Model the fold of this input.
Amino acid sequence: MPSASPSSTLGPQAQAALAAYVAAWADAAAVEDGGNYRDSRLERHIAGDLLMTISEDDYVEEAHGVASRGMPILHPRVSAQNLNGDPPTVTVTDCIDFRHFIQYYVATGKQYGAVQTGLSASTSTVTLMNGAWMVTSAATGADGSCSL
Done:
């Protein structure tokens, strides 16, 4: 997973929003690997309805004995900024490689579901909330919905 390294074309606010996006994915992958939907790491960089949706999905997976291992490979870029909005927002678009982020049954270690064969387009909104950038919405397309 790439880090959100500073870009000469992005201002510090957009860089911070991009870093929060990358951190949110790292936290979500770690929580899914641990199989504990109650893990508070999700709340560090994810908020609102998106936090509720991810927590609910993790709860269902945990209840069915499913966890994930590996890490999605991100290719994020800032595609829009509204830093003067109330609240300020940054839109991050991505082409995510989930091929090495595999779901499995905890009890047996056997794979759960199909492994993706392509990359998925994603658009997320990162919102400045109480002084911290938080991912507040995300839409991810189907397997094969983007290419690099």
In short: The chain is about 25% helix and 30% strand. The first strand starts at residue 66 and ends at 70. Helices lie at 12-34, 48-63.
